[in-house]
Write a structure and sequence with these properties.
The chain has about 450 residues and is of the alpha/beta class. The chain contains 14 helices and 23 strands.
C-alpha cells in the first residue's frame, strides 16, 4: 500500500501545478496523477504512439479561433499556417470561418487538401519562386502579398485574369523595447520600405500592370507582441501611404492587413496580448488615421498563428536517464530534443515542463531537461523544477509546443520527426504519422 492510498488527501497536494494560461484548455490531472488532455491520458498517447510525440488539443485550437472572430469585431481573421499546418488543422481553421495564409507550394497544397476555399488563402513569402506563384495563380488564391520587384515581374507574366494583390510595406516601427522579435524596421529582408519611396514605386508599378489588382497594403511588425499599442503607429503609417496612393493614382485601396505576431505565454508570468485590448486599439487607430487623412475605412485583416495553435499543443518525452555532474547540475535526458524543438537552441526559448504519468512524491529538484542529440546546446528546459524521484521511464510533458515545433522539426542525427496526434472528447487520432528510418532512406539515392 502506498502513502497516497493511506492518505488520499495527499493527491491534491502532490498534483502537478499546471498554469491554465499555458496548458491546453482541456488539461486535467486524474486521480492517478496522469495529465489528461481532451479526455485522453498522455500515458495512453505515449503507449500507443511512442515518444516523442506532439499532441494537439482540437477543442483548444477551435476555441481560440472562435475567440478571434468574436473579439476582432468584423475584421477578417486569416490563420498563419506557418505556425502549424496539416490538412486537419487547415480544415479546423476553415470550419471556424478563418482564411489561411501559406508561404510555400507545399503549404498551399496542404491548405487546399484540407478544404480551404482558394479565395480564402493568402500567399506570403519574401522569396516566392516563379513556380510557386504559378501554382498560386492556377489554384485561384484570393490574395498574393508582393515582397519584391521580381515577384511583380513574375506575376505580371503569369496572371491570366485579374489577380488581387497586396504590397508588403515596412513601416519602420521599432518594437525592440517590447521584448519582441521585430520585423517592421527597414534593415531586414521583408517588404518594401516607406522610406526612400520604395513602397510607392512598387504600388505605381503594380497599378500600371495589366491583370494585377492592387487591393491593399500589408505589414508585419514583429512576433511575440504583448502591447497592442505597437500596432497603432503602423496603422497610421499604412493608412497615410494608402492616402498617398489615392492622391497620386486616384485609386482607393480597400484592405489593411496588419499581420500577426500576437504574444503568448510559455512560462508562468509571461506577458500575453489581450484580444479585447487589441480590438480596441485597432478600432481607435483606424478611425483616427482615416479621419486625419479623410480616407474611407478599409477592411482590416489580422493573421494570428502562434496565438491560435501554440497553447493547443504539448510534446511528450520519455525519460532515458538522470545524472548529476561534478559541477552540481543535474541532467534529465529524454528521447527527443532539438530536432523536434529547435527554438531553445535558436532563440533561447523557455518552456514549462511537468511529470505526466504519476503523482510526484516528495520534494522537487532543479534540473536541466536535455535532449538526445550530439550538441551541447541541445536542451529543452533549463532550471526546471521536477520531482527528486524522477526516474527512467517517467513521462514528461512540455507545454505550449503547438506552434513552430512540427513546422520547424528536422531529422538531425537521422532521427525521424514525431507524429502529430489530435485529441478530442476522449479520442485520439494521428494527423501526421511518425517519420521512420525507411522514410529517411527512401530519399537517399546513393
Amino acid at each position: 500500500m502506498t502513502l497516497l492510498e493511506i492518505l488520499p488527501s495527499l493527491r491534491t497536494a502532490t498534483t502537478p501545478r499546471l498554469d491554465p494560461a499555458i496548458w491546453p484548455l482541456t488539461t486535467h490531472v486524474d486521480d492517478q496523477g496522469r495529465i489528461t488532455i481532451g479526455g485522453v491520458a498522455m500515458t495512453d498517447i505515449a503507449d500507443q504512439f511512442r515518444t516523442p510525440a506532439y499532441v494537439v488539443d482540437e477543442a483548444d485550437f477551435r476555441r481560440r479561433a472562435q475567440h478571434y472572430r468574436t473579439a476582432m469585431r468584423g475584421a477578417e481573421v486569416v490563420y498563419a499556417g506557418k505556425a502549424l499546418l496539416t490538412t486537419a488543422v487547415a480544415h479546423w481553421a476553415a470550419e471556424e470561418g478563418l482564411g489561411v495564409d501559406v508561404c510555400s507550394a507545399a503549404e498551399l497544397a496542404t491548405a487546399l487538401a484540407g478544404g480551404v476555399a482558394p479565395g480564402r488563402i493568402v500567399l506570403h513569402g519574401n522569396a516566392k519562386s516563379h513556380d510557386e506563384l504559378h501554382e498560386a495563380v492556377d489554384a485561384g488564391v484570393g490574395r498574393i502579398v508582393l515582397d519584391s520587384p521580381m515577384e511583380i515581374t513574375y506575376l505580371a507574366g503569369l496572371a491570366r485574369m485579374p489577380q488581387q494583390v497586396l504590397i508588403r510595406v515596412t513601416p519602420d516601427v521599432d518594437i525592440r523595447g517590447h521584448r519582441a522579435v521585430t520585423t517592421g524596421v527597414c534593415d531586414q529582408k521583408f517588404g518594401f520600405t516607406l522610406a526612400g519611396g520604395h513602397a510607392a514605386e512598387a504600388a505605381a508599378r503594380v497599378l500600371a500592370t495589366a491583370r494585377l489588382e492592387l487591393v491593399g497594403l500589408h505589414c508585419h511588425i514583429g512576433s511575440q507582441i504583448s502591447d497592442p499599442d505597437c500596432y497603432r503607429e503602423a496603422i497610421g503609417r499604412l493608412i497615410a501611404a494608402m492616402a498617398d496612393i489615392r492622391s497620386t493614382h486616384g485609386v482607393v485601396l480597400s484592405e489593411l492587413n496588419i499581420g500577426g505576431g500576437h504574444g503568448v505565454p510559455y512560462v508562468s508570468g509571461d506577458p500575453t496580448l489581450s484580444l479585447d485590448a487589441l480590438a480596441d486599439t485597432v478600432e481607435d487607430a483606424v478611425e483616427s488615421a482615416c479621419a486625419a487623412e479623410r480616407f474611407p475605412r478599409p477592411r482590416v485583416v489580422v493573421e494570428p498563428g502562434r496565438a491560435i495553435s501554440g497553447r493547443a499543443g504539448v510534446t511528450l518525452y520519455r525519460v532515458c536517464g538522470v545524472k548529476a555532474q561534478a559541477g552540481g547540475r543535474r541532467f534529465v535526458a529524454v528521447d527527443g530534443g532539438m530536432s523536434d524543438n529547435p527554438r531553445v537552441a535558436l532563440y533561447g526559448a523557455k518552456y514549462s515542463v511537468a511529470l505526466a504519468n504519476r503523482h510526484p512524491i516528495g520534494p522537487t529538484q532543479t534540473v536541466t531537461v536535455a535532449g538526445r542529440h550530439c550538441e551541447a546546446g541541445d536542451e529543452i528546459v533549463r532550471d526546471a523544477e521536477l520531482p527528486a524521484d524522477l526516474r527512467p521511464g517517467d513521462l514528461l510533458a512540455v507545454a505550449c509546443t503547438g506552434a513552430y515545433h512540427h513546422s520547424m522539426a528536422s531529422t538531425y542525427n537521422m532521427v525521424g520527426r514525431p507524429p502529430v496526434v489530435a485529441v478530442r472528447d476522449g479520442r485520439a487520432r494521428v494527423l501526421v504519422r511518425r517519420e521512420t528510418t525507411a522514410d529517411l532512406l527512401t530519399r537517399d539515392c546513393g
